[in-house]
Amino acid sequence: GFELLVNPKAKIWHKVSVSSGGEYGPTHMYYLERNRLFLMKKFGFWIPIVSWFLVSPILIKRFFAGLIRGEGIRSALAVLSGVRDFCLGRTGPKAA
Known about the structure:
96 residues
């Protein structure tokens, strides 16, 4: 019983990661790093020594991007926290 209306002139603006503190915010950086590692492990790209050499440039880049462009040291440490929680097998919401 509903009527569907469409406005072809409507525009939507997407603010990147606004709910998690912005693109370089600590929350975003934490989940980005932790979940990337879990996906690599889940889909078979997990030979620890080989993958470390492939992952480390990305990790270093994210660490410094968080430090320089984001929330400073909080974002950079969030990247390391994501790696730590991956290594400990922590999933779900970030622990406070």
